[in-house]
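Dear Dr. V.,

Thank you for agreeing to look over these. As mentioned in my earlier message, I'm a first-year student in the group and I'm still getting used to reading structure tokens, so any feedback on how I've presented them would be very welcome. I ran two proteins. I've put each sequence directly above its structure. The first is here:
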Amino acid sequence: MALDFLIIGAGPAGLACAIEARRRGFSCAVADKGCLTDSIHRFPADLVFFSTPGLLQIGELVFVSPSFRPTRAEVLRYYRAVADHYELAIRPYEKVTAIQPVEGGFTVKTEQAARGARAVEAKRVIVATGYYDNPNPLLVDGEDLPKVSHYYTEGHPYRGMNVAIIGGKNSAAEAALGYWRAGARVTLIHRGDALSDSVKYWVRPDMEKRLELGQIKAMFNTVMTRITRAEVETQNLVTGARETIANDFVFALTGYHPDPSLLIGAGAKIDPLTLEPVYDPATLETPVKGLYVAGSIIAGINNNKVFIENSREHGKMIMNAAGR
């Protein structure tokens, strides 16, 4: 029997959609190629959220935290509680490979390690896959070396190492501080002439003090041009000067973008420049009847416009359009 809704993506937006579907009496399941709230799980281990608990809350389950700014561990614990409280049908580690429109709905093809490939029938599909799986590439020689990563987790393994961080926004600043505190020799490489205004207000003074004291080296107005096994090569955008510095690890924290391939394969339209899908802003339905988008994927590459606090209402918009 076909599900009323199959939701792709078990992040906060996908969970909010599932909660609202259950509340309206729809049958639904949530498939994710990773674990529950997989992106948050892969955030830095010591991350403190900018949003307060109330803004991260979904459904009616209150997020109780002793802190004004909750930690990653607290947020993960809360979303586990949400899934349990609402008895959501989560299908972790089940990757959706294709969405095929058929008469009366969709056939969704998935792959799961234990079950292999299978097909799921659904009357409607919500794509809430976010963007964190797809880092923006540097497009320089050596980017494919094992020492290059687009994710910061924790600083401990890099004690005594020469670490280069590419970027000047909050993620880069927090990573630089984390690696420096763990004992790494840190160089921040940023094409801008200063740290971004997006750096959190409690992170900026700490970062600026490290730069002032020379504890973290900053190379502003600079891009990385090549990565080798033992070095990185850079160029100053103002003077044109080139420099080669010793390096053990590179962390390119230059942002992420959504993968619209599932939507395109289902017949949805995508702006080729912004990767933003075409959808009705009142219902979040794409031109493909019964195919909806939710969460940050609706904004394409401008994903800094959609957060948990404003995407948690997407479920209500979609279910109102579905008629219950």
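The second protein is here, in the same arrangement:
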Amino acid sequence: MPSKVNNTKPRKTRAARREAEEAAAKARAEQAAKERRQQTIIGVIVTVIVVALVAVAGIAIWRSHVAAQNSGANLTVDQAYTKLQEVKTKPSVADEKGGVIVSQQGVGEKIDDVPTVEVYMDFMCSGCGNFERASGETLTKLVEAGQINLDLHPMSFGDTWSPDEYSTRAANLLLTIAEQDKSASHILGFIQNMYADDFQPAENSGVKTSDDQMRQQATKAGVSEKVAKAASVDKYTDWLDAINTYNPKRSELFNVSGSYKGQMTTPTVRINGEYWDMNQLTTAGMTSNEGLVTALGLTDDQVGVEGQLPSIGADGKPISVTTGK
């Protein structure tokens, strides 16, 4: 009889099995290490992306614009101030340094014993728009409750990024409307509408905005059609040109930190005459709205409460958002 062929594989020795198990374990360990390295690399990439996005977001929120540094380059600040005073046609609502006071009592009326918040702004400036969209509602509540005086300083150097002199026309409208309508709510509402995300033109976008479109933003805020229609878009252009020369030379408006240190940018905010360094908001992890309330010596639940006055009063320095002092 033919013999049967034995097809059974020989069993591995104990040593061979151990060697195979060790090799498999080593392979698994190497694969795990490889996956950990990949995860680490992915984690680093994600972190870099997140940091980059945060940085971009910060730039979008806080990006400022150097305000016409070369305008009247040969003039001293005193000479620029003199030129400003020599302008023949000046807005009646603006003081000698270009500020327009808005308070609970109306345009041009200052309240005693409360802080004064100065805001230097340009209607074309993206940073100004972001600041207004973040803090405008709070500023309005503070004004309407008699908790602050708001000192508005319109500028118009942003025409650089506009095809139709948007900044100049918008600033003229603000000034001429404020001469006829003394309601703080109407004026601040107009500003909020002008900076609305779906209205403010993007810089260098080529978008043109008509005078009537801007006037509609005023009537939406409660300004009468008669006042809005009569408001001028060029009456105070010479004065605004002088402001654009004067403000960037004022050392008290210079950035005290950041890449624009030693230069004036918009938005610039001062509280009781003290420069408010918004660069500290990043360190403190605060929005401009949160930081502003803190700097005034209030809490969120006190905003808009009539009779609840900010702790810094009319003469105190803004409270630091990083040290609390």
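From my reading of the second output: The radius of gyration is 30 Å. The first strand starts at residue 65 and ends at 66. Does that match how you would interpret it?

Kind regards,
E.
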